[in-house]
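User: Hello! My lab partner asked me to get a predicted holo structure for this protein. The small molecule is zinc ion, SMILES included with the sequence. Please write out the structure tokens.
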Amino acid sequence: MSSFRKAKIVSLGLNLPMQKNLLLKTSTNPLYVLVLFWLNFSQMANSQNIVTMLSRKQVENKNILEMLYKDSAYVQKKRLVNTLFAHTSPGQWGEFVKGVDEELVTQKKIIAFTFDACGNKSNKYNNELIDYLRKEKIPATLFVSGAWIDDNYNTFLELSRDTLFEIENHGLNHQPCSVNGESEYGIKGTPNVPDAFDEIEANERKIELLTGRRPLFYRSATAFTDEACARIAKLLNVTIVSFDILSGDAMPFAPAQSIVNNVIKNAKPGAIVIMHFNHPEWFACDAMMGIIPSFRKKGYTFTRLKDYPLKSR
Ligand SMILES: [Zn+2]
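Assistant: Hello! Below are the structure tokens for the protein in complex with zinc ion.
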């Protein structure tokens, strides 16, 4: 792990430049920000105490909010975020809006492969793809929704224990993050600030409770989000990540060769590739078998997001 990421974890949200930024943009009252940092800190300590006491059922999506709403630190944090953002404009809606990161900060030939597990009706597991990554020792970032975890509980725990992978947040219910109910690809986004908060923070807590590690990154469902959500995530000490290279694995019946071409023709140092590992019927695995040897021949190596600082384009 780079010293950059270590410092970020250890800070537990006590990030002074971010604090200054918030004071300017979000609130004129520094008390709000200090209270939020304290809540971040106390919640972290609290979750470490109860991690071993939870049953699988308690953290299922249909139960977890009920549990979190009994946690005063969670409720206070939610109330505070709602107060800060209740009258904030959503700003732009898209995959590359202000506040979203899309690539690594590096000039080296390094690529980050990220794989989403969306959940709900898309709750399968591409075992063949994960096996290929393991066989070839390709580190990867896995963005996982709370809904997918519920349907793949044991697989999720097994993946979280594999140091080749980094588990990150793909939203509690796989709803695009919106403060006013935007939709994308027919998937309805969160309707307001409190629901946007739960979509991000409840899945942060769920993953942390199950693995002992709070995710550093959040990718909104469909990768679309608004600028207000990007600011909410930042306040929660989570970085919203989009992508640099759209592999196209989610295009209906996309053949492996078109995915290979999409990725290879757009390759550049620091690029973040988006693919999926919840659709074994798609051709992500066949495509990776074409992409990896080609990249290796060109001198590329592979990384997880947590090992590099990120930036927007
Ligand atoms: Zn998704």
